[in-house]
Every structure is written in structure tokens, then in C-alpha cells.
Amino acid sequence: MNIDEQKARAAEELANAKARVTAELAREKADVDAAFGKASAKTHIPVDKLMHAAVGLVLWALALFVFHNLWIAAGVAVAAGAAKEIYDRFHPLTHTADFMDFVATAALPVLNSVVLWGVARP
Fold first, then answer.
1. Residue 39: which H helix or E strand, with range?
2. Whole-angstrom distance, CA of residue 78 vs CA of residue 90
3. What pLDDT does 30 receive?
4. 44 and 8 in a common domain
5. CA angle 56, 31, 83 (to 5 degrees)
6. Are 90 and 82 contacting, i.e. CB atoms less than 8 angstroms apart?
7. What was the pLDDT predicted at 37?
């Protein structure tokens, strides 16, 4: 086998490996989308959005515990949601950026801060 045949064979093997990896990533993404894209039976809200809302509330509660300030706590949750979506935007092979994910993460912490501020202000 001469050098040109070896190069051609190596290029073909590389192309086949790339195709296999791309197909595997597509199957994994489809599996994740199928698992997290479905809506909850009770609320008709996608499970992914419910998970974002739960993480936002947990971050808000932890920040409220640490900083004892409603607005800082809301800011922490909003910043975390924005950072996650920015990260997703720059990693398109493994993540999908979605503005509504940001909204799901940030909405309840901000709403909680507004309501508690309205109730607790002097």
C-alpha cells in the first residue's frame, strides 16, 4: 500500500468515526429532549422549565439565607439563570440556549422578592 492509499484510507476512517460520533450525539440529544421536553401531566408545563424554576427558587433561598436581602437573593438567581443560558449559547453541541429557560429560572425568585418586599416593608 503506497502513501496516497494510506492517506485516503485514514481520511475515510476519520470521516466514518466523525459520522458515528455525530450520530451518537444526535441520539443522546434526542433522548434528553424526549425526557425533559415532555410536559408534566398535571401542569402541562415542560419538565425542563419546572426544573429551572426549582433551581431558581433553591438559589434564591440560599442567597436569602446568606445575604439576608431579598434583592440580592433575586439578583443571584437571575444572574445564575443568565449565566447558564450564556454558557448554553456558547456550547451548542451539548446544550441548547433558550430564553424561556432563563425566564423559568428567574421569574419565581423575582416574584417572591416583590411579594415579600410588599408584605414586609414598614
1. none
2. 19
3. 72
4. no
5. 30
6. no
7. 64
